[in-house]
Protein: 3-isopropylmalate dehydrogenase
Organism: Spiribacter aquaticus
Amino acid sequence: MTHRILLLPGDHIGPEIVAEAERLLRALSADFGLDAELEYAHLGGCAVDAEGDPFPATTRRLAESADAILLGAVGGPQWDDRPRDQRPETGLLKIRSTLGLFANLRPAMLFPELAAASSLRPDVVAGLDILIVRELVGGIYFGQPRGLRTRDDGVREGFNTLVYGADEIERIGHAAFQAAARRGGRLCSVDKANVLESSELWRGVMTDLAARYPQVELSHMYVDNAAMQLVRDPNQFDVIVTGNLFGDVLSDCAAMLTGSIGMLPSASLDDGGRGLYEPVHGSAPDIAGRGLANPLATLLSVAMMLRHSLDEAALADRVEQAVARVLADGYRTADLATDPARAADTRTMGQAVVNALYH
Ligand code: NAD
Ligand code: IPM
Ligand code: MN
């Protein structure tokens, strides 16, 4: 059956890294039996410019009928002063929530060849393999009321609401317990239950769920401590489950343990098999257009897509092995290189991964 894959290149480095994903998908189709049809649409700033909406109806229709979606990244300074509904990031939030993509899987693993690129000592990051499960369509990102207003004394204020329903906590909890059961059997729920009622409920729901997963050992940690523990001794973690905002922050932090934010892929899943796949990093306007972007997070996101949405586990393994091989062969983009003068550009890295598929 032909898989319909929707590509959303987005802004700044987005099109550069998605071009490498397209090269990879075309090679998998030509020589490794992947039956895929690629479609393209606008999301983010490019959609604002082309269609006047960061998540246009045409994109929505294609997204709803696709078997899987690959996103580059959205956003950039030229759209930062727009009203919120005209911002690229709003398009991303809308596609996640419209498609019900509540479970965001952000694996952080260290390729042994990159131990020297990590900002932590090699002995601290050796063997790193953790999974952050981030709730993606609730919490303070979506809570109402929100807005900007002027107080009676004339002072402006901005406000947001952090709210989680027990049903929302339960479904992300199930996703996380199931992921932990498939991996090392340890789940750490990260919250701020010492201060926030929404976290008090979160902790209670996670504790209740644990009875249904006797093979998983549940622990709890406050988010401030979790941020510290991630850089002190990341290998104490197997799976972390947390809310939308905490997961956003902790996953960028975990990314750096692997050598670069340019290494971290992600999958955003609904409760069927539909998924949107994207690197954890953003559109990196500071390096756009210069061939400096590391495409590996995007190529590893393609591997996650093959595994989670397209039922092509063998091809997913092949892509991950190809990435491991190019790193073993010494290919490094500037973000990973010890000698940036000898770094591979985006295209060279992408082509090297494609070449390694054939070994
Ligand atoms: P960013 O992740 O884009 O960049 C942070 C730093 O990491 C920059 O120095 C950048 O050059 C570097 N970097 C990021 N990806 C890289 C890669 N693949 N290779 C090499 N270096 C890389 O975060 P930011 O600067 O805070 O945000 C820039 C824009 O991206 C903003 O508009 C933000 O809203 C948006 N954003 C989008 C997404 C997304 O689309 N999923 C995620 C995060 C940020
Ligand atoms: C991410 C990004 C997004 C988020 C922004 C761009 C809306 O930082 O995917 O991590 O905060 O979820
Ligand atoms: Mn983020």
